[in-house]
Amino acid sequence: MLQFILKRLGLAVLVAFTVSFISFSLLFLSGDPAAALAGETASGEDIEAIRRLYGFDRPMLVQYGDWLMSALRGDFGESYYFKLPVASLIGDRLGVTMLLGVCGISFALLTAVPLGVVAAIRPNSIIDRIALFLSVAGQAMPSFWFGLILIVVFAIQLGWLPPSGAATWKHFIMPTIVLGYYAMPAIMRLTRAGMLDVLSSDYIRTARAKGANETRVLFRHALRNAIIPVVSLAAVQMGFMLGGSIVVESIFALHGAGYLAWESIARNDLPTVQALILIFSMFYIVFTFLADVLNAWLDPRMRSS
Amino acid sequence: MTDPLLSVRNLTMDIPVGGGTLHAVRGIDFDLNRGETLCIVGESGSGKSLTSLALMGLLGKGIQRSADRMTFDGIELTKASKRQMRALRGGRMSMIFQEPMTSLNPAYTIGDQLAEALLLHRTVTREQARARAVELLEKVGITAAESRLSQYPHQLSGGLRQRVMIAMALMCEPELIIADEPTTALDVTIQAQILRLLYDLGREMNMAMILITHDLGVVARVADKVAVMYAGELVETGPVAEIFNTPSHPYTRGLLRCIPLPGKTERGKSLGTIPGIVPSLVGSVEGCVFRTRCPHATMECRGAIPQHHDGEHAFRCIFADGKRHSDKELTA
Lengths: 305, 332
Description:
The complex is a heterodimer.
Chain A: H1 2-29, H2 33-38, H3 44-54, H4 60-72, H5 86-121, H6 126-140, H7 143-157, H8 173-199, H9 202-209, H10 214-226, H11 228-244, H12 246-251, H13 257-266, H14 270-298, H15 300-304
Helix pairs in contact in A: 1-14, 5-6, 5-8, 5-11, 5-14, 6-8, 7-8, 8-10, 8-11, 9-10, 11-14, 13-14
Chain B: E1 6-17, E2 20-32, E3 37-41, H1 48-56, E4 64-66, E5 69-72, E6 75-76, H2 82-88, E7 93-96, H3 110-119, H4 126-139, H5 145-148, H6 158-170, E8 176-180, H7 188-204, E9 208-212, H8 216-222, E10 225-230, E11 233-239, H9 240-245, H10 250-257, E12 307-310, E13 313-316
Parallel strand pairs in B: 3-9, 3-10, 7-8, 8-9
Antiparallel strand pairs in B: 1-2, 1-4, 1-5, 5-6, 10-11, 11-13, 12-13
Helix pairs in contact in B: 3-4, 3-6, 4-6, 6-7
């Protein structure tokens, strides 16, 4: 097990470096940063001056090495727009995004897994049909539309919840539902399919033949095996939620990291965008690593391979 | 004479299918005493496995089971509550399945799965359960039993897994053990060992055993009683010697001609086959089900079929000795 964890950890670090390099070079390919910074009316000399000032005239590898060494120390440079250290800028926003992400994935898992299990126990029952309807609706509805509907109903018509902002826990209810509902269908379908598959397997019959009761059969013997693919999916969804909650953060005016990313791209704020891409990809890497470890704990066959 | 451990009368199972009802098992009767071994033989789809699952109360949804009587040590299984059935399953009656490769839970160690069988039925500590597991693993001939406890199913071969399954079935010293083709999925070299082991353990613990197989060589070696099933019916049943020496139902005779028997089969002569296929059991099933393949069939075989008894030996045929006498058997 320890060997497995170390192997995965090594792999995660390698992926992290690769991702950081690719994201760094992609931003250089997307245009001349000096020209963009200088603005449309700048003269050739101005652009050259800016190029030298920011060090864009050095070879790209040198710039990357420089940036990476600072990044490892937690220094992501200064935002062109805010004129503040990027690290503290992101630090302020990350709290909101992480809270939203944790709430979103929790909401998704807490609704999707029980629903998937019940749907698998009674396939084609009323509950199964309802679960199917909910998941199709969730997959078909765009987040921005669903978010607006919720605002219209619960904030404007009923006045139960605040429409935007992040001041209290009440502000997080609708964003959580919108974000979680987006991830729910896939998790639900995978849980249902996994449970259906496992429940018809020979070892479930063995468990029953031993005299285990239905609760024990379902949770100890079946769900433990059926949940393995769900763990991997949830990890990817979680990474997506932390990095890709841009739409939800914009609708509900939650000033999180996603919102910051969107603003910074529009403003050509290179250091901020680079740092955010790095942090978002780190989230994916960390969650994938955690999912691998959790899966190895759940499934002994994975440990030996 | 004491009451039999297991007594079954008119066990019937119907499965609703697309175009009607599949009469999968019809009117099964048999008794089994403590310490006896009953072999159920018959071809695939004849209802052997369904019969054993019905006894264990493990039938899938959608299969309708009925019986005039199905008692285990005086307990009426058709009327037993779910709780009562759970207490019996694994506790007083156990089952060994055909597929050792997939019958163990991949997520738990051998030790956990063995211990669970005991912990579900007895108030013992984990340590006691593990000690019992080691004892049984040794009994089923697994070396380094102690270290096997922490292994997972995927680390064991098929033969070892089936030994683990046997050990698991024996954890609570059941009075009845049902083995559904326990060696079909194993290498030929392992098959004999596993059967020998089951047979010896059964004798040692004085367990009654139902062994489902289509290997008549095995039947000849281990059975006390034989039940021959064909297309959902028990066509012939009786003590093993009588079944092999004086097979009465035409199907049983046909089956016996399909295998070489020492002293009975002539050298150089080809083995028999039973021509034709098993009839469909969807819709109404009347008369003798074997008549479409029977060399002795007459018009009367479409009607009610009497049961002939001679002590414990019984068979269903319109002819008192299972033969039409006007002509010789076609396949002889």
